[in-house]
Each structure stands twice: as structure tokens, then as C-alpha cells.
Amino acid sequence: MSFQEEVLEEISVKESVKESNQIVLYNDDVNTFDHVIETLVYACEHTPIQAEQCSLIVHYNGKCTVKTGDLKDLKPRCSKLLEAGLSAEII
Predict the structure, then answer these.
(1) Cα-flanking dihedrals φ and ψ of residue 45, to 5°?
(2) Is the pLDDT of residue 39 over 70?
(3) CA–CA separation, 44 and 37 (whole Å)
(4) Which carries the bigger pLDDT value, residue 32 or residue 9?
(5) For a disulfide at 43, which of 54, 58, 80, 88, Cβ 3.0-4.6 Å?
(6) Which regions span the lipid bilayer (predicted)?
């Protein structure tokens, strides 16, 4: 009679979990759609259509994530939004 032995190997797996920061734009009663769209094109490099869609989401939902990425990239973009009078934060 022959026996075969099964050996379970323990494998160490490292997962790199990178937090994705995001700029959230909030609705206000001050800025026009045109101003918001132009600012998103300038600050976040959106296409005009993408910026228009984000402005509508902000209008109807109260907020919208307009950009995700590294904090180093998002800080100057968020500053541009704030300088333009928009309400935004990085979360």
C-alpha cells in the first residue's frame, strides 16, 4: 500500500491598498452653471460635457466627486476650485 502526502504551503501575499483621495464639489446658490463648468474644465481638466454632467449632479444631489487621485495632485486642483468661489473639499 502506498501513501501520498499532501503538503499545504503557506504563501504570504502583500496587498497594496492605496487610498484614493477625491475632490467633492458641493452645491451652492451663488455660482452659475456656466461658471462651475468653466472652472471644472480649467481646474480638473474635464471635458465640457463631463463638467456639465458634474454640475447637474451637484445641482440635483447636493454634491459630486469631480476628481480622484493622489493627494499631491488634488491639492492644487481643489485650491483652484476654492479660489473660483466654489465649495469643495478633499476627502
Answers:
(1) 60, 40
(2) yes
(3) 10
(4) 32
(5) 80
(6) none
Burial of 21 (0-12, 13-18, 19+ CB in 10 A): middle
Q: Which value, in Å, is the radius of gyration of the alpha carbons in the chain? A: 22
| pLDDT score of 17 | 61
What residue has cell string 452659475?
32
C-alpha cell at 41: 474644465
Cβ 73 vs Cβ 15: under 8 Å: no
Give the CA diameter of the chain: 85
Residues 6 or more apart in contact with residue 73 via CB below 8 angstroms: none
